[in-house]
Amino acid sequence: MRIISLLIALAIIAGCSGTGGSGSADPAAAPHSSSVADPSAAKEKLEEDMAAAALAEVSPEIADQYSGYVHMDAVQLNGQIFQVYYWNKGDFKYTQFAIVKEGKMVFDSKQAGLTLEGGDIWNEEEELWAEAVVQNNRNTFLFTLTDNRPEFASIVVEEIDGEMQVTVNDDFSVNYEDVDQDGSEDLLASPYSGQSPLGPALMGIYQLNGSNYVPDKLLTRQYAQDQLQLSEQEYKNDPSEQTLEQLLNAYLVLGQRSVALSRFAEFYEWAGQFAGDGGYVDEYNGLLRQTETAEQISGWMDKLQPLRTKR
């Protein structure tokens, strides 16, 4: 997948348009290599310039029927040019968006009945307001909302059977990852970011069923177990307050506080500390015994529900 922001596209076009001076060129002074330029390289450069120009060009449909958009994303997915236009009538970045594919409108959030208090920017550096990905060969757009602040809210629009469909509209953060390394990406979703100390984020794994994401509880448990192994290795290799908390959170996610408490002799040893010395291992030993988090999140995997498509 290649993502090109509008600014990058415009920069490419501007860079190609300059002639390098007003004086007449001296043929004798031109480098000899210019007369024997590689045709394939020239063709590739032309194709890149044409793609950049296409990304930057405003859709005629938008120009004719819409006005006043505040931003446009321009990306290329699966060799196809997509643009996302945004309008704003609120206090945040946008309250409406539309997706254009190859110059044709394929999705309008207002026509789809989506009501947004406000949307946020996904990548400020690249000036891309939505995340555009190809996952499981589906063109997909992820929109981050401010509707559930300070926690998460997201909308996911995917191209399924040639039609853009809302597959997630819920108070979760979402991203895609090949959790089980089977070559297809899984959706990871969490309702909140967690808190410190010992308030882990609860990350569920979901699979698309029709046009809805349903929880995969077996894969969710396997993912949590994998995170526990990774966290233990990180703490053992680089013991610190941060890596210890990460490890203890992994135990809490799995409902294994008692197992974690039984292993504190090792945790002291790896950190070069001793029980009662007042170090951070001592502190977290006490916090883990006192925390109510274990009871609050007990059985959370069994309570996972399908992600909503309407809020």
Helical proportion, percent range: 25-40%
Put simply, the count of helices is 9
Which strand order spans the largest sheet, edge to edge or round the barrel? 1-2-3-4
Global shape: elongated
Quote the distance from N terminus to C terminus.
31 Å
pLDDT < 50 runs, ≥5 residues: 1-35
Tell me the total number of β-strands: 12
Class derived from helix and strand content: alpha+beta
Description:
This protein is an alpha+beta fold and 311 residues long. The protein contains nine helices and twelve strands. It has helices at residues 6-17, 39-56, 60-65, 217-237, 241-253, 257-262, 264-271, 280-290, 293-296; strands at residues 71-77, 80-87, 96-101, 104-108, 131-135, 138-144, 154-160, 163-170, 173-177, 186-190, 204-209, 212-215. The strands form three sheets. The protein has a four-stranded antiparallel sheet with strand order 1-2-3-4. Strands 5-6-7-8 form a four-stranded antiparallel sheet, with no helix packed on it. It has a four-stranded antiparallel sheet with strand order 9-10-11-12. The longest helix has 21 residues, at 217-237. The chain starts with 5 loop residues before the first helix and ends in a 15-residue tail after the last helix. Residues 1-35 have low confidence and may be disordered.
